[in-house]
Every structure is written in structure tokens, then in C-alpha cells.
Amino acid sequence: MNDDLYIRKMHEQYDSIFQQCISLNTELHALVPLAKKMHLLSSNAVSSAARAGSKGDAFRVLTHDIQLLGVDVSQCIEATQKVIVEIVMLASTLARLFASYRIYRAVLIQTEQFKQSSTSHDFFYQGQQKIAREIGDINLKLERSLNLLADILSPISMLIKKGDYLAVFSAVEAASAGEYEASFDAVSSMLRELVTLLGKQSQRQRFLLRDLSETMALQQNNIRSLLNAR
Asked: Are 158 and 186 spatial neighbours (Cβ–Cβ below 8 Å)?
């Protein structure tokens, strides 16, 4: 591949990484309302069990587990919000730095073509190398942040299964709750709806993370090649 084309493709890739991080940020922010709904669901479950009195004893045990599920989901979502801010900032910095790298590279080529002083050539060469090293360092930081985010999201699949089980058990209790069946069943339906939504959103996030991680690994190899080639 032509050297200029290779550099341009790398620049486009960094711009693409930034856009992917923005998309991931949007997906993760969509989880925030879900956490609030989980909290509301917990409150509704407690109220339903309280209104049922002794007939809600078995359901009351489930409400405790539903509350714990809501806490776990909320904590996971809160943790993702902190990491994604850093991820977007790092991706933005990478796109900006590589734009600067291309400028230094273009000026360096001109100094070679027009046989300008070695002092000018050395200045732009060192500047280019410094930026390349910064890009390499930030690549690693972004890779680590993406891995951290993947770790934070990893419990989601287990929480989804737990939510599915609780929804089933709640439906069973609702079927034998007599006059309180409707309120118990409402909790079960809302829980199932929220768990399904969480599953769909987490799947999209896993796909975005996978693509980003693969792209970052490729870019890290590319930047090493640039450093070794000079």
C-alpha cells in the first residue's frame, strides 16, 4: 500500500474509533433510565407485598431479591458512566494527535524535498516521533479502559438470568395470590420487560466493545510499525 494512503487510512481509523466511542457512550447513557426504572420496580414490589399482608409473605422474599438485583444493576451502570467518559476523551485525543502527526510528517517530507537545513529536518523529525510515542501510550490507555469497561459489564449476563428467574417466580406467586394477583403480576411483567431491555442493550454494547478492541489492537500494531520504520 502507498505510504500516504496507509497514513490516511490510519487517520480515518482513528476518526472512526472516536465515532464508535461516541456510539458506545450513547448506548451506555441509555442504561441510566433503566436503573431508575429498576429502583421504581423495587418500590412497587415492596408496596405490593405490604398491601397483601400475610398473603404476601412468599412474595415479600422475592421483593428482597428484586431490590438486590436493582442495586447490582444500578451499581454496574454507575460504574460504566465513569469509564466511558475517559474512553471518549482518550479517543478524541488520539484523533487530534494523529492529525498533528500527519502535519509534522507533511512538513518533514517538504524539508527533505527542498533540501532544507538539517536543523529543521531534525526538529520536525523529533516532533513527529514524540507524537507517535504519545499515540502509542494513549492507545494502550484506551485499550486498558475498554478492557475495564468489558469487566464492569461482564456481570450483566448473570444479572439478566437472575432477573428472568425472579420474574418467573413472581408470576407463580401472582397466580396463587387471589385478589392480589394483579399487583404481583404487574411487578413480574415489569421485571421481565426491564430484563429483556437490559439484555438487548448489553448485546449491542458487547458488539461495539468487541469491534473497538479489535480496531485498537490493529492500530497499536500500526503505530509500532511507524515508530520502527523511522
From this structure: no
Burial 68-90 (b: 16+ CB within 10 A, else e): ebbebbbebbeebeebbeebbeb
For the chain, first and last CA: distance in Å?
17
Largest CA distance in the chain: 92
Burial (Cβ within 10 Å: 0-12, 13-18, ≥19) of residue 58: middle
Q: Which three cell numbers stand for residue 229?
A: 520504520
Its pTM stands at 0.86
pLDDT per position as a tens digit, 180-207: 888 888 999 999 999 999 999 999 998 9
| Structural domain boundaries in the chain | 3-224
**Spatial separation of the C-alpha atoms in residues 45 and 51, rounded to whole Å:** 10
